[in-house]
């Protein structure tokens, strides 16, 4: 069964913990979004792991350089996963993978900005990455003509473990599930709802 990852794109630790408290029963992975980490620093990772020790904590660093160093920072703070940009060089990804081995954690490659996401996903899995995020970021989603269907089609033919992120919601979760993606990432479709717990529960049930 595909896992559900909540992407928390809020800006304070207090708000992030409050949201996670509501949705934790329905999610497998708690993602601390890049804006949240930039706003609050590494302490938000430590606070979230302390509050939810049984959940996988995903630090969305989107690292572009110094992969080993940044991965070590994230893992020491309590993260289970760190994201490294697929657009960066293999040495940055390999550095993070080495740190992940040392701390028994994992690296996820984020394909934001990558032209051929499937090809890059296949390349980086060979470097020891846990899974690859087929990702259209918030700005790309706002561009005219954006459709998550592109990511769903890519997941179907990737042949390696992938997640889908970029507007996953209750209307497309069935297609996301059928694509074979191992993780469905939902941000606004959870934190932007009046009842985030009900939204997360519905997404989780759709993935079952
Ligand atoms: O990673 C994300 C983005 O780059 C800002 O951090 C989002 O969390 C990701 O795109 C999922 O969010 P939704 O598209 O709102 O589901």
TrEMBL record:
Residue intervals of the Orotidine 5'-phosphate decarboxylase domain: 3-203
InterPro entries xrefs: 3-hexulose-6-phosphate_synth (IPR017553), Aldolase_TIM (IPR013785), HPS/KGPDC (IPR041710), OMPdeCOase_dom (IPR001754), RibuloseP-bd_barrel (IPR011060)
GO-annotated molecular function: 3-dehydro-L-gulonate-6-phosphate decarboxylase activity; hexulose-6-phosphate synthase activity; orotidine-5'-phosphate decarboxylase activity
Functional pathway: One-carbon metabolism; formaldehyde assimilation via RuMP pathway; D-fructose 6-phosphate from D-ribulose 5-phosphate and formaldehyde: step 1/2
Reaction catalysed by this enzyme: D-ribulose 5-phosphate + formaldehyde = D-arabino-hex-3-ulose 6-phosphate
CDD domains cross-referenced by the UniProt entry: KGPDC_HPS
Enzyme class: lyase
GO terms of biological process kind: 'de novo' pyrimidine nucleobase biosynthetic process; L-ascorbic acid catabolic process
Keywords: Carbohydrate metabolism, Lyase
EC number, UniProt record: 4.1.2.43
Organism: Fulvivirga sediminis
Protein name: 3-hexulose-6-phosphate synthase
Family the entry assigns: Belongs to the HPS/KGPDC family. HPS subfamily.
Keyword Transmembrane found: no
PANTHER family xrefs: 3-KETO-L-GULONATE-6-PHOSPHATE DECARBOXYLASE SGBH-RELATED (PTHR35039)
Gene3D superfamilies: Aldolase class I
Listed Pfam families: OMPdecase
């Amino acid at each position: 069964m595909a896992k559900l990852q909540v992407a928390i794109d809020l800006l304070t630790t207090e708000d992030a913990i409050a949201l996670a408290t509501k949705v934790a029963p329905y999610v497998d992975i708690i993602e601390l979004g890049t804006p949240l980490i930039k706003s609050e620093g590494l302490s938000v990772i430590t606070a979230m792991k302390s509050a939810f020790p049984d959940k996988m904590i995903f630090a969305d660093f989107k690292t572009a350089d110094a992969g080993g160093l940044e991965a070590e920072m994230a893992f020491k703070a309590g993260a289970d996963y760190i994201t490294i940009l697929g657009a960066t060089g293999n040495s940055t990804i390999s550095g993070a993978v080495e740190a992940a081995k040392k701390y028994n954690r994992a690296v996820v490659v984020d394909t934001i900005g990558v032209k051929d996401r499937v090809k890059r996903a296949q390349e980086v899995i060979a470097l020891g990455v846990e899974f690859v995020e087929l990702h259209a970021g918030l700005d790309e989603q706002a561009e005219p003509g954006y459709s998550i269907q592109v990511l769903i089609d890519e997941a179907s033919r990737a042949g390696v473990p992938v997640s889908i992120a970029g507007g996953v919601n209750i209307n497309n979760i069935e297609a996301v599930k059928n694509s074979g993606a191992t993780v469905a990432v939902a941000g606004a479709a959870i934190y932007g709802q009046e009842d985030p717990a009900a939204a997360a529960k519905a997404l989780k049930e759709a993935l079952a």
